[in-house]
Here is the input.
Amino acid sequence: MKKLVKNNVYWVGKTDWELKKFHGDEYSTHHGSSYNSYLILEEKTVLIDTVWAPFDNEFVENLEKEVDLAKIDFIVSNHGEVDHSGALNKLMEKIPNTPIYCSANAVKSLKGQYFKNWDLRILKTGDTLDIGNGKQLVFVEMRMLHWPDSMAAYLTKDNILFSNDAFGQHYASDHLFNDLVDQCTLYAEAEKYYANILTPFSAVLKKKLEEIHSMNLDIDIIAPSHGIIWRDNPLQIVDKYISWCDDYKENLITIIYDTMWNGTKTLAEKIAQGIREKDADVQIKIFNLPKSDMNDIATQIFKSKMVLLGSPTINNCALHSLAALTHYMKGLKFKNKKAAAFGCYGWSGESVRILNEMLNDAGFDVVNDGLKCLWNPDSEVLEKAFDFGKDIA
Ligand code: FEO
Here is the structure.
């Protein structure tokens, strides 16, 4: 059933309450998600984006109940990723000649995924389409936010920005709008979304926010393609993005370790005590990596000014969970964050050096050689770990 967004604009998407993993298994979605599709019923009938492929039949059946599909004048595909374009196949079987407006790069992504000869029409930044009643859709390419094909559409007079992935959250809710949902969950999911999806593109985003600002658009509603729609002070999330895209950090040190027989865990806790001894204000968070969610840890790294990684040595290496995490961190391209390593060993003791190399490779500023402990930490080593924490602080 369609839900009213504003005037003649309706939400016709899919709320996915059960989703626990997104992008394959790469992103945890503790609160589900939604795929937001929008129907505009002005003199022209316009559909903006669709939903993920598993819901294609349901989407088309529901849409048919709301509008005669043959009356859809055109579709806007703001982004070719399958969570938004996945129902196009089913829809276009019914209305094969309907034009699809998209960016030049979306022609490549749509053709590359669906192999169809749809009537794809290219838009670039500043292009407009009249939809009647004096209203226009104005388009802004959002290249690399987060795909080359990404685009946003702005509806004049109603002042709605259809921002696609930007400003979204993986948050399933029966309520559409930001003033109706739990604010802590909303912001936690918006921040996690930024940290895990948009961090690599922060520099691009910074320029794009300036460009959109210079267009002097009145924005009453920001309608992203996932999660909650921002209608109550919608620029609050833009302000957040402005701070998040500028090498964001809080007064937070995150300690992440894996451990075999708890020696490295003991070091982690003693280092934390040393930090606290020196600095009463800094926030310290400690994670046992294999017992934690990697995307939630990445969100904490995003917020941290410094990250400490710990692993014992095994087979001349660090434990493999640290390799997966540092590989993921490298992809997120964090900037201006400090780091250090620690770990126990029994004979060869390579893990701290390897952690340092992985942290360097991931773009972190490694501040010292790290802390190594032969066998279990005794009182002397515990004192060293405490002092290591004080030095870190
Ligand atoms: Fe929500 Fe990039 O797709």
